[in-house]
Specification:
The chain is mainly alpha-helical and 113 residues long. The protein has helices at 2-5, 65-71, 84-93, 97-112; strands at residues 30-31, 52-54, 60-62. The chain is built from 4 helices and 3 strands, in the order H-E-E-E-H-H-H.
Length: 113
């Protein structure tokens, strides 16, 4: 997770996510020095215990749009024209480009056999 979270350029026009990041039973964040859990798109927005960094000292922070986009293999130049919540929902529904390319190649190979 740390490799996706930084170093990032200073955010301009960034707003703090509107919800408190907190862990609760069955919903915990991703440890900063571990792999990230899969992004999740909720029906009612980003839940309190998902899509967040667990700093290991009892503090948590939701991913920024850019951190979540990096986890989904998106270019830093991509701009999100919508709110933080809508962006996280779209990113939670997305498939990383490299993964979809590899999967598509496997399907094409199987169909050609």
């Amino acid at each position: 997770m740390r490799s996706c979270a930084g170093p990032l350029p200073v955010a301009t026009g960034h707003t703090i996510p509107p919800r408190e990041a907190r862990a609760y039973k069955g919903h915990t964040g991703s440890r900063l020095d571990s792999c990230s859990k899969a992004l999740r798109a909720g029906d009612h927005g980003v839940s309190g215990g998902e899509n967040m960094i667990d700093f290991g000292n009892g503090t948590y922070r939701h991913y920024t749009k850019r951190e979540a986009a990096r986890l989904q293999d998106m270019d830093d130049a991509y701009e999100f024209p919508c709110s933080w919540g809508d962006s996280l929902k779209q990113l939670g529904n997305a498939v990383p480009g490299a993964l979809s390319y590899a999967f598509g190649g496997s399907v094409a190979q199987a169909l050609a056999a």
